[in-house]
Design goal:
Strand order of the largest sheet of chain A: 3-2-1-11-12-9
CATH topology of the largest domain in chain B: Transferase(Phosphotransferase), domain 1
CATH superfamily of the largest domain in chain B: Transferase(Phosphotransferase) domain 1
Structural class of chain A: alpha/beta
Strand content of chain B: 15-25%
Helix content of chain B: 25-40%
Number of helices of chain B: 19
Number of domains of chain A: 1
CATH superfamily of chain A: Metallo-dependent phosphatases
Helix content of chain A: 25-40%
CATH class of the largest domain in chain B: Mainly Alpha
Oligomer: heterodimer
Radius of gyration of chain A: 17 Å
Largest sheet of chain A: 6 strands, mixed
Largest sheet of chain B: 6 strands, antiparallel
Strand content of chain A: 15-25%
CATH architecture of the largest domain in chain B: Orthogonal Bundle
Shape of chain A: globular
Number of strands of chain B: 15
Chain lengths: 246, 482
C-alpha cells in the first residue's frame, strides 16, 4: 500500500496540484493530508474544496492550527499569519468552516499515527524540530510510524529498542528503509510554503509493502502562486517566501 | 529477545545446524531452508542482556545495507529476522577460510601479493559502485569463492550514501579496526570512500612486508600517530619489493584523502599496469622521514579536526572517471583519429581529474597462427604502442593519468569491451567510420561496443558533407545501426 503524505498546503493551489500529479504518477493508493489546508496562500476555497473531494474519495485528513482558526477558533498567530488569516476568514463559507471544524486531530491506520504537530498534545501545536522535540511523540503512542507536519522543514527521527530518539539524516528522493527494530517519526515538509531554502513543494511517499519512506520534492509554478498572493493584497513577505522557499 | 539460537531451531522456514563461529558480536550458524539448495549461514548478534547499543546498531546497519547489494563480491541475502523474536541475517555460505590465514603467512611471494591485492581492490571497487563504504576492511572480512572472486563480509560499520547513517550520532569514539583505520575515520568521518583505500593500503603493506604499517596499536593514542608519522618504507623491510609496488602502497596510505588514490578503480588500474605506474619520491624512499619533518607535520596535524569529505561515494567516483579511448591507427582512420583526439581534449575540460586509457586492437585471425612481427621483423606490438603514444602526445596529461595498451583479438569490439570492464572504465570514447557497404553487412565495432558496454559510450564521427548525406539517405537504417 502506498500512501502520499501531504501537509501544510496553505492555500497554495499550484503546489497542491503539482504534488497531487506527482503522487498520481507514482500510483499511490491513498492520500493523507496532515492539516493546514488554508492560511497564507491565495486559494483557500479551492484547496479546502479539493481536500473535501479527496476525503469523500477515501483520503484521510487531520486538522491543523490554521484550519482551526479559519473555522473560527481562537489561535495565537504571528503578524503575517494573522493578517493572512483575517483575509482567509472572509473567503470561507459555512460549508468550508463545517468541513475544517469537523476534521479529527489524529488518525490511526494500523500501526501508523497521523497528526498535524507533536503527537503528545495535538492541540498545543508544538513544533517537532529536533530529536528532543520528537521524544514526547514517541512516548504517548505505541504506533511504529508517526507522521506530522507544522514545521515546514522535513525531519526524520528514530526511536531504537532502548528508547533512545535520534535525528537521522536523509537524502530527498531516496527510499529510506524503516527498520522494524525501531520506531520512526517523520516531519513531512510543506506542500505550499516550504521553509528549508528549497522553493519546491514537499511531500512524502510511504510504501508499507516495501516498508520504506521517500521524502520527495516537486518543482511547481511558485511565480504564479506568489503573484496571486500579491493580487489578493496579502503581505509581500508571504509572496517572497514562496519564491525563496524560506 | 525471547529466542536464542541452538542447533535444530526452526525460524521462518530456516533450520539451524551446527554453530560455525563465535565472534565478538555475533555467532554464525549453518542453516537450511526448503526453498534454497545452496548452503546457507545464519548470523545472529550476541545481544547482551539489557541494552547493547553498538551491537544492535551494527546489526541494523547490516540489515539495511546487505539486501541492497548484488554481485559476486557480496554474500547473497536470503532472509532477515527482526528483534521481536530473534534478530538474524541469512546469507549464502561462502566456502573457504577468511584471508586472516593468508595474512598470517605474510610476507607472501610478490606475485601472490600483487594478485591478491588486485582482487581485493576489485571487490572494493564493486562495493563503492553500489554506494557503500565498508569502513572496516580487514583480512577477516575477505573470503574467497571457489570461483576465485573475493567476497567482502561484515557490514556493521558500513555507510550507504543514499541511506541514513544510524551510527552517525550514536558513538563518540571512532569505530574501525586500529591497524587499518584511516586518519579521517579516526577523526570520525564516515563519508569518505577513500578510507577504504587506506585500509587496502595497510593490508597490502602487511601482505608484502609481514608487518602492519603502524604495528598493532591498542589505544586511540596509538592510532592517532598515523596522522604525522610515516610508516617504514616497504622496500626498507623487503628490498625485492619493486618501486612501483611501494609507490602504490604508500600512495594508498597518504594521510590527506585528497592526495591518496581517488578511487578503487584507479588503484586497481595501477596494480594491473605496473610498468605504467608513475614513480615519485615515494617509490624510491628507503627511510622514514626525518624527525624534523615529522615534528613539522605533528604541529599541523595535531590541530586538525577533519579532512574535506566528498558529498557522496557516487559524486567522488564521478569526479575521477577512467575514460577508455579506442584509437584506430590504420591509414583510413587517420582523420578520424585526430577528431577523436580533440573530443578527448574537450572532455578533459569538463572532467579535469579523469584518467585516460588509450587502447588499440591488433586484429588477429580467427583460425591460424598470427605473426607477431611485420615483414621487416618489427614487433607489431611495439610499433602500435609507439603510434598510440604519438597519437596521444597532444593530450598533455601527466604520465600517471595517461596510459596505453595494445590489445589483441579476433573480435576488436569484444577486446575493447573486455578491457573496459576489467579496468573499471566509466566511459568509452571511440570513432566510427563512414557508411560503407561492407560495414552495413558486417556490422561495425562501435555499434557492438555501444550495444554491449556496461558504461557510457561516446561515438565520434567525421562530419559528412551534405551530398554524401543525400547519398546515404536510402540506407538510413544501416546508418542508425552504426
Amino acid at each position: 500500500m502506498k500512501f502520499a503524505i501531504l501537509t501544510d498546503i496553505h492555500a497554495n493551489r499550484e503546489a497542491f496540484e503539482a504534488v497531487l500529479a506527482d503522487a498520481a504518477a507514482r500510483k499511490v493508493d491513498r492520500i493523507v493530508l496532515l492539516g493546514d489546508l488554508v492560511g497564507y496562500g491565495a486559494d483557500p476555497e479551492w484547496c479546502a474544496e479539493k481536500a473535501a473531494d479527496l476525503v469523500a474519495q477515501g483520503a484521510l485528513c487531520v486538522r491543523g492550527n490554521h484550519d482551526n482558526a479559519a473555522a473560527g477558533a481562537p489561535e495565537m498567530m504571528s503578524t503575517y499569519a494573522k493578517r493572512a488569516m483575517d483575509w482567509t476568514k472572509t473567503r470561507m463559507t459555512e460549508a468550508h468552516r463545517r468541513f475544517l471544524a469537523g476534521l479529527p486531530l489524529t488518525v490511526d491506520v494500523d500501526d501508523i499515527l497521523f497528526v498535524h504537530a507533536s503527537a503528545n498534545e495535538p492541540e498545543a501545536w508544538t513544533y517537532v524540530t529536533s530529536d528532543t522535540k520528537a521524544t514526547p511523540s514517541f512516548r504517548v503512542t505505541k504506533s511504529r510510524l508517526i507522521f506530522c507536519g507544522h514545521v515546514h522543514v522535513p525531519l526524520l527521527a528514530s526511536c531504537d529498542v532502548g528508547g533512545v530518539v535520534r535525528q537521522q539524516t536523509f537524502r530527498p528522493g531516496f527510499p529510506i528503509p524503516l527498520l522494524r527494530s525501531r520506531r520512526w517519526l517523520a516531519v513531512v515538509g510543506s506542500v505550499g510554503q516550504p521553509r528549508d531554502g528549497v522553493p519546491q513543494a514537499a511531500w512524502a511517499l510511504l510504501d508499507t509493502t516495501l516498508n520504506d519512506l521517500t521524502f520527495r520534492r516537486v518543482p511547481y509554478d511558485a511565480a504564479t502562486a506568489a503573484r496571486k498572493v500579491r493580487a489578493a493584497g496579502l503581505p509581500e513577505e508571504l509572496a517572497i517566501r514562496l519564491l525563496k522557499g524560506q | 529477545m525471547p529466542v536464542r539460537p541452538h542447533p535444530g531451531l526452526e525460524i521462518d522456514g530456516f533450520t539451524l545446524g551446527e554453530r560455525l563461529h563465535v565472534g565478538g558480536f555475533a555467532t554464525i550458524w549453518e542453516a537450511t531452508h526448503a526453498k534454497y539448495r545452496t548452503p546457507l549461514v545464519m548470523k545472529v548478534p550476541t545481544i547482551m542482556d539489557g541494552y547493547d547499543g553498538p551491537t544492535i546498531v551494527g546489526f541494523e546497519i547490516e540489515q539495511m545495507i546487505m539486501p541492497r547489494l548484488t554481485g559476486p563480491h557480496v554474500p547473497r541475502v536470503m532472509g532477515v529476522g527482526g528483534f521481536e523474536v530473534m534478530p538474524y541475517i541469512v546469507t549464502e555460505r561462502i566456502d573457504g577460510d577468511s584471508f586472516l590465514k593468508v595474512f598470517q603467512q605474510a610476507p607472501l611471494p610478490l606475485s601472490d601479493v600483487i594478485e591478491i591485492a588486485a582482487r581485493m581492490v576489485d571487490a572494493v571497487a564493486d562495493l563503492h559502485r553500489q554506494h557503500v563504504i565498508h569502513l572496516d576492511l580487514k583480512p577477516e572480512n575477505f573470503l574467497q569463492r571457489k570461483s576465485g572472486e573475493m567476497v567482502i563480509v561484515d557490514y556493521g560499520l558500513s555507510r550507504h550514501d543514499e541511506l541514513p547513517d544510524l551510527l552517525a550520532e550514536e558513538f563518540t569514539i571512532p569505530m574501525g579496526t586500529y591497524p587499518y583505520i584511516a586518519p579521517e575515520q579516526y577523526l570520525r568521518c564516515r563519508d569518505d570512500a577513500r578510507s577504504d583505500l587506506f585500509a587496502l593500503g595497510a593490508m597490502l603493506y602487511a601482505l608484502a612486508t609481514g608487518k602492519n604499517p603502524w604495528g598493532t596499536p591498542e589505544t586511540l593514542r596509538g592510532v592517532r600517530k598515523r596522522l604525522w608519522r610515516d610508516p617504514v618504507p616497504p622496500r626498507a623491510i623487503r628490498p625485492e619489493i619493486p618501486e612501483w609496488l611501494q609507490e602504490i602502497i604508500l600512495r594508498a596510505l597518504v594521510v590527506d584523502p585528497m592526495r591518496r588514490y581517488q578511487s578503487a578503480g584507479q588503484m586497481a588500474f595501477d596494480l594491473t599496469h605496473p610498468q605504467q605506474v608513475k614513480l615519485t619520491a615515494r617509490a624510491h624512499k628507503l627511510k622514514q622521514d626525518s624527525l624534523m619533518t615529522v615534528f613539522d607535520r605533528w604541529r599541523v596535524m595535531r590541530k586538525i579536526r577533519r579532512f574535506k569529505a566528498p558529498d557522496s561515494v557516487a559524486s567522488q567516483l564521478a569526479s575521477v572517471p577512467i575514460i577508455c579511448v579506442a584509437v584506430d591507427l590504420t591509414p583510413e582512420g587517420e582523420k578520424l583519429a585526430s577528431v577523436l583526439r580533440s573530443a578527448v581534449k574537450r572532455m578533459l575540460l569538463i572532467e579535469p581529474d579523469a584518467r585516460i586509457a588509450c587502447v588499440n586492437v591488433i586484429k588477429t585471425a580467427r583460425i591460424g597462427i598470427d605473426q607477431g612481427t611485420d615483414d621487416q621483423g618489427n614487433n607489431l606490438h611495439v610499433v602500435r604502442l609507439v603510434q598510440l603514444k604519438h597519437w596521444a602526445e597532444e593530450i598533455e596529461l601527466p604520465d600517471d593519468r595517461l596510459t596505453f595498451a595494445v590489445l589483441e583479438g579476433s573480435d576488436p569490439g569484444q577486446a575493447i569491451l573486455d578491457y573496459a570492464t576489467a579496468n573499471h572504465a566509466d566511459h568509452i570514447i571511440m570513432g566510427a567510420r563512414g557508411h560503407s557497404t561492407t560495414r552495413r553487412y558486417l556490422g561495425s565495432v562501435s555499434a557492438q561496443v555501444v550495444a554491449e558496454a556496461h558504461c557510457s559510450v561516446t561515438v565520434i564521427r567525421l562530419p559528412e558533407r551534405r551530398e554524401e548525406l543525400d547519398e546515404t539517405v536510402d540506407s538510413l537504417s544501416g546508418a542508425a545501426a552504426e
